[in-house]
């Protein structure tokens, strides 16, 4: 068996194709088989037992059906790869897709070497396997003495991602703030010093707590140990609290800070 592989590139930009040619022996004509059979009978008639055994073994080897000549061509198109099996005469074949890919089985024997895109499962009769990815498709057909196998390797289209609509910003919700509780600590009088004069403090007037947020919230407000707490639901919501003093009065409370 003689194997010759030719590679060439077409004139088009970005396109290439290769061809693998497999040359095999042709079948022996019927007339030659008849002549060989008559000569074998004459040789066995006057031969010794050992010679007869050797001639019988030789006849069995020569009687094995020779491999057919098959020519394989491969080319690449836009989005697919084509493999052509040219047998020289019309042959029968079957193709089925399985877990491993597309298997093509011919009814003739051929000594074929693996080529890019397929592997050889058996040679008598010839069976080849084209590995396929889940997203790949395959097509096969016969034209005269040639069998065509097209493998489409285009990936599935990427689904379109539509931009999400920005949620509307709700109006800030104003919550009346409660005055924080204060604890007067008794001043200790150091020894030998006079008692300091009492200082009159101005009462803290009611303030308004304004909370700005980017989504609808559920708020809870309470005071603990002189600190005003504002809880927002759902967790992780972005809020911006602000203290608003009475009209015409300066703020007597520190600006609140948002925490997680």
The fold-level CATH name of the domain at 2-27 and 65-152 is Immunoglobulin-like
Tell me the CATH architecture of the domain at 2-27 and 65-152: Sandwich
Largest sheet: 6 strands, antiparallel
Show unreliable segments: 1-33, 155-164
Radius of gyration: 47 Å
Strand content: 35-45%
Protein structure class:
mainly beta
What does this entry look like structurally?
By secondary structure, this protein is mainly β. Among the domains are: 2-27 and 65-152, Immunoglobulin-like (Sandwich), CATH 2.60.40; 170-181 and 206-260, no CATH class. It is 12% helix and 36% strand. The protein contains two helices and 15 strands. The longest helix has 16 residues, at 30-45. The radius of gyration is 47 Å and the shape is rod-shaped. The model is unreliable at 1-33 and 155-164 (pLDDT under 50).
Write the layout of secondary structure elements.
Elements: E1 2-8, E2 17-23, H1 30-45, H2 49-63, E3 70-76, E4 80-86, E5 93-98, E6 101-106, E7 119-123, E8 126-130, E9 137-143, E10 146-152, E11 173-176, E12 208-213, E13 218-224, E14 227-233, E15 239-244
Antiparallel strand pairs: 1-2, 2-3, 3-4, 4-10, 5-6, 6-8, 7-8, 9-10, 11-12, 12-15, 13-14
């Amino acid at each position: 068996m003689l194997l010759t592989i030719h590679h060439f590139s077409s004139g088009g930009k970005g396109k290439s194709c290769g061809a693998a040619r497999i040359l095999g022996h042709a079948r022996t004509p019927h007339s030659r088989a008849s002549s060989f059979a008559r000569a074998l009978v004459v040789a066995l008639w006057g031969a010794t037992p050992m010679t007869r055994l050797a001639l019988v073994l030789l006849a069995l080897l020569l009687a094995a059906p020779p491999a057919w000549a098959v020519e394989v061509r491969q080319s690449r198109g836009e989005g697919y790869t084509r493999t052509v099996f040219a047998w020289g005469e019309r042959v029968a074949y079957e193709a089925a897709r399985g877990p491993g890919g597309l298997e093509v089985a011919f009814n003739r024997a051929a000594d074929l070497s693996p080529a890019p895109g397929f592997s050889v499962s058996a040679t008598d009769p010839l069976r080849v396997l084209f590995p396929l990815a889940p997203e790949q498709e395959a097509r096969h057909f016969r034209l005269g003495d040639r069998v065509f196998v097209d493998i489409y390797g285009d990936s599935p289209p990427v689904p379109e991602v539509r931009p999400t609509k920005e949620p509307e910003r709700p109006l800030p919700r104003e919550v009346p703030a409660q005055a924080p509780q204060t604890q007067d600590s008794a001043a200790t009088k150091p020894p030998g010093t006079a008692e300091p004069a009492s200082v009159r403090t101005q009462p803290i007037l009611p303030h308004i707590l304004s909370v700005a947020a980017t989504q609808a919230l559920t708020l809870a407000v309470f005071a603990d140990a002189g600190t005003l707490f504002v809880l927002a639901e759902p967790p992780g919501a972005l809020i911006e609290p602000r203290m608003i003093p009475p009209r015409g009065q300066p703020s007597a409370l520190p600006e609140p800070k948002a925490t997680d």
